[in-house]
Amino acid sequence: MYLTLLTLHSLVRWFVLISLIVSIYLAYRGWLKNKPYTKSDRIIRIITVSIAHTQLIIGLWLYYISPIVDYFLHNFKESIHQTQLRFFGMEHITMMLIAMTLITAGAGIARRKKVDKDKFKSTAIWYSIALLIIFTSIPWEFSPFTSRPYFRFF
């Protein structure tokens, strides 16, 4: 179960990143070029939030069953001083929860705006901040905190 969830979490991360990048691109384009907010813009916003929430559910489930997190929580005093254990036990989940909150808030704020330019602006700003947090909190192969492969296979 753990390996399956880990692989799924690794795969869905790319869908999150792609959907966020597409949403941000369309939001900045709409905002800066005064485009009308269309049904496809709304659908892309909803898809982005849905993918992000799916990743959040997988991540929380993974956090609950992870042997790394279990070790971190049961050996907190020692683990807090080990970069890799601290990253997965505390930093990764905290930053991703913040990013998911920003994505959700940004989508909700954009949905309630009456002016198309304001919808695009809200989406662009909130999603951009979330993407920055996500980029800094993913365990990339080049990360100074911990290293994981770009693609994890079963």
Q: Nutshell version of this structure?
A:
79% of the residues lie in helices and 0% in strands.
Element layout with pairings:
Layout: H1 2-32, H2 39-65, H3 67-74, H4 76-79, H5 83-112, H6 116-137
Low-confidence stretches: none
Shape: elongated
Strand content: under 5%
Report the biggest beta sheet as strand number plus sense, adding barrel if it closes.
none
List how many beta strands DSSP finds.
0
Mean pLDDT: 92
The number of distinct structural domains comes to: 1
Helical coverage, percent range: over 70%
Write up what this structure looks like.
The chain is mainly α and 154 residues long. The protein has one domain. It is built from six helices and no strands. The protein has helices spanning 2-32, 39-65, 67-74, 76-79, 83-112, 116-137.
Jot down its keywords.
elongated; 154 residues; mainly alpha; 6 helices
